[in-house]
Amino acid sequence: xxxxxxxxxxxxxxxxxxxxxxxxxxxxxxxxxxxxxxxxxxxxxxxxxxxxxxxxxxxxxxxxxxxxxxxxxxxxxxxxxxxxxxxxxxxxxxxxxxxxxxxxxxxxxxxxxxxxxxxxxxxxxxxxxxxxxxxxxxxxxxxxxxxxxxxxxxxxxxxxxxxxxxxxxxxxxxxxxxxxxxxxxxxxxxxxxxxxxxxxxxxxxxxxxxxxxxxxxxxxxxxxxxxxxxxxxxxxxxxxxxxxxxxxxxxxxxxxxxxxxxxxxxxxxxxxxxxxxxxxxxxxxxxxxxxxxxxxxxxxxxxxxxxxxxxxxxxxxxxxxxxxxxxxxxxxxxxxxxxxxxxxxxxxxxxxxxxxxxxxxxxxxxxxxxxxxxxxxxxxxxxxxxxxxxxxxxxxxxxxxxxxxxxxxxxxxxxxxxxxxxxxxxxxxxxxxxxxxxxxxxxxxxxxxxxxxxxxxxxxxx
Length: 462
Fold this sequence. Notes:
Number of strands: 6
Radius of gyration: 24 Å
Number of helices: 22
Helix content: 55-70%
Distance between the termini: 28 Å
Structural class: mainly alpha
Order of helices and strands: HHHHHEEHHHHHHHHHEHHEHHEHHEHH
Strand content: under 5%
């Protein structure tokens, strides 16, 4: 999708949600959502937010754009995609409680927190919505909930009932667990440098400490009174002063700004990860460095130093997100990568703990490809073929430049790198990448001892 401004047909919901100052309550929104034990369990088990926070934020913003700012057809496609994603998120949490992302009451809570955050943003800035405006905003909000298939009975019936609903959920359901503490005090302190920081990137280690501290103070200060009563937190004079200054100051500043500054524009996102591969010394075996980079930047989606089935699912989700596949094609890719995971676990899980760490992965892959020329054909190759066929949108049996860009492109990849990668894969120079060329590039990435392979261009350059 191209970058566009807010739609011409403007509603109170779009106008409020589209304001850039919604960013001031974004972390507050995430904290309230993650405090629900089901959301926390799903985040802990399946989300990539720890390892790839910026990519996860981009996906969330893009999904919100499609739900709230796009036309009916694009919203329908996004709802279907979310439903396919949620049906794979289920299990048992650390306390032994079953959880499912398809639980309608949980989905209702997640959506109501978004509405509540919009009203909180206005209240905190000293410009609260009138009762009539709340009614209009909530009615528009319920239309989106209906499109998502959330039953009306799990939602407050009117805007006037939302505060009591939120208060009850905070006091009776939410938990101040490790995921909440990590979101408040840990995540930003460990976050990788944002790709757009440019020349300021070397200062990021210091910047993130200052930003994390200020964001935690702002978020805690802005949480509802019931939260402070339930969990023993406090606004504190410093947090209260910071909150008042930011919310009131930004409100007045944005009231003077043109719409292109005041409102957030939609942007392209969802590109699959590309690996910056360290180069081996001349004449050395570059495979271990490539495999370690692949493990850290592609496989270890949850960022905990080990890979399990949830990591593979998260990786596939990122691919499917980019390609916007129908359910049956998504299922084919999930099944193929799950087959690779079974082979990987059997070969690499040497300590039998159900996961694979980086050392186990590198050792198993090197041993496998050195011992058995057909090793990759038994796991990785079927997965890569499924990915190729999904990207081959017109069913021509090859990837054109546009299909290649859709699979590997995005704001994190420079166009020159895309063109270079495409040329390297197009080994016969006919302007298209056939399935055999695509598969060969991936196989070379795992088997070639030298760096001068097509796969180095396919997966990124250091």
